[in-house]
Specification:
With 88 residues, this protein is α+β, with helices and mostly antiparallel strands. It is built from two helices and three strands; from the N terminus they run H-E-E-H-E. The chain has helices spanning 2-17, 52-59, and strands spanning 32-37, 43-49, 64-68.
């Protein structure tokens, strides 16, 4: 039984090791991200676009799409001035 468990663990490790693992990076300085799909299921986010049109020009002809950056802070850093509950 122990040998069977070790074989299953080794097989699972080999399968999971074959899948690339990448950290997703969203740059809060840019408002648009390019999401692109590559071989073997690799998905890459590139948040370095100032406009949707700029991103679409890059995505044209690729397996990619443009989307709004959920972490974009805007020109004045809109997330930096959150109200902390209570009365002001």
């Amino acid at each position: 039984m122990r040998m069977l468990c070790l074989m299953i663990l080794a097989g699972t490790t080999a399968i999971l090791g074959a899948v690339p693992a990448t950290a997703q990076r969203y740059d809060p300085r840019y408002q648009v991200c390019l999401q692109s799909w590559h071989q073997r299921g690799l998905v890459i986010f590139d948040c370095s676009y100032n406009s949707m049109d700029q991103c679409r020009a890059t995505a044209s002809g690729l397996s990619a799409m443009c989307l709004e950056n959920p972490y974009w802070q805007g020109p004045s850093g809109r997330h930096s001035r959150r109200r902390q509950g209570g009365v002001s």
